[in-house]
Amino acid sequence: MTERDDMTEPGQETERDKMTDPGEATEPDEMAQHTDRSDDAQPTLRRVFVHALALLGLLLSASGAAGLLRLALAAFGEPELAADTAGGLALGLSLLVVGLPVWLLAWRAAQQQIAADEDETRALPRRLFLVLARAVALIVVVVHAFDVGVWLLGAGPYDAAALARVLVWATVWGYHEHVASELPFGSRGTGRIDRLHVYLAATLGLVLSAGGAGTALTRALERAYDRAFRPEAVLVEGVPGLASAVVAIVLGAALWWWHWGVRARDDRHATGWHVHLFLVGVLGGAATAVVGASRLVYLVLVWLLFAVEEPLVDHFAALPVAVATLAVGSLLWGYHRAVVRERAPSGTWTGPQRLYQHLLVAVGMLTTAAGTAAVLTFGLELLLPDRTLVEAAALERRELATGLTLLLVGVPLWATSWARIERVVQASPRERRSGPRRALIFGAFGLTTLVSVAALGRVLFVTFEALFSQAWSVEVLAAERWSIALLLTAGAISAHYGYVLREDRRAAPPEEPEAAPAALQRVTVLAARPRELARQLTAELQIPVDAWVRHDLPAEPSVLDEEGTVVDLDALSAHLRVLDAPEALVLVSATTWELIPLHRVGARAPS
Length: 607
Prior knowledge:
607 residues, mainly alpha, 4 domains, two-stranded antiparallel ribbon, 19 helices, 69% helix, globular
């Protein structure tokens, strides 16, 4: 059941009246609107001033409170510090006495602005203040939580200063995190600021937890390796660095879970969500796994192909690091791959899946290119007179092992990912015009062409210089073996993607001329609280927008409310501008939104 959201008292202008004919404003109305925009400077300056004072007072008072709490906590474990409290007490009291009134007065003024006008919650200075306050508090907590965590695990000394800072700044973060929830995450106008904080914090948490897991696993495997093969190296009980790794895991997992799993749970339409998923999760996990696998294969190749001069126990001492890196990278890769697949449960080729596969191709291509260049460099070294594989130096043989390792890891990754893409392209020729495919092809073709030109120029310069000075020899050419290897490798990749580009242009279906879209004449918004979205769409599209209230949904929580919206207004406006229909319905539910084109009975819908 719905009702029109234009019920007002007699004599008052309704919201719909303001929306219906935006292009028919009289000249005095336009002048009044211009005056109102000019007067906006004063409230903006007031907001900036109030929130700047609030941030200054917050920093001073929190620092002073942490200093005073440090002196109180020192009595439990650092009596020598507690005995000398004059300087610390004076500093803490002075900061608190100055900062607390400033923060209280400025914050009270900011809250009074909210009580007078709820739109103040969306003001840029307020959102920026909340982001800065939480970011500073989070950094202080993360830095000092390691000392506190190591002490709690019994592996480090008691640090009253670190404990005090963690307690005070964690309280600051929690309070401002609660205040920030007054506006739904990712709302219009403040989404970029909030998303920057949330996804940077999620990335920090993921890096901390992954690094801690890798360190803990490495230390455990090193301990097991020493006990099994080098018992003389086991001098003390316990695993060094394990306490710090455990703290990193717990702290990082908490940060990542809160910001990624809770705050960004319903933000999957946003660019920041996809950037974190693909660039941090998929690409970071794949790169970490490739590094671990490469190190593991390298150790085995050197042992199998070349005579290892050092004892095997020392040669394989890096095995725990390689295994731990591979395990952590595979875990990250596997989780984010599952998230990508969740976006396409029916097995269809969606945008996230498409981007994921092209990222894998890029990683595999770069790994293969590096391995090919290394192997070619070593092969050109063998062109020198009296130079054989057996007589090659140990360093040169290890370079060959590195190249073979990169090839063994990169070629399967590149080949399988590219073959998967090509199967989809064969089934759907329109995929040849997809954005990720074009970015990969043009990027690889352009980059390798530039490298080929630079390497060719270097080789020709050295060759001509040697010929003109009559100093030409095979050694001169061998000295530029890296340039030659880069020229051959980049040239081959450039030729491959040049052929793919030509095939795409030949086989891709012709682009059909877009029919002129029907002029959109009216939009209807159907939501629990539709007024704000209707107002913003009217300003964006300059057409009548009707607001209808849904009573079958609770007003809170909702995708849309009067303070903002999780609906991406830019994306919605872009869809509406190209919509081939005279009318449209924006249907907003409690968890998502849908755009429905409308055609009146008897009108012919476009094909």
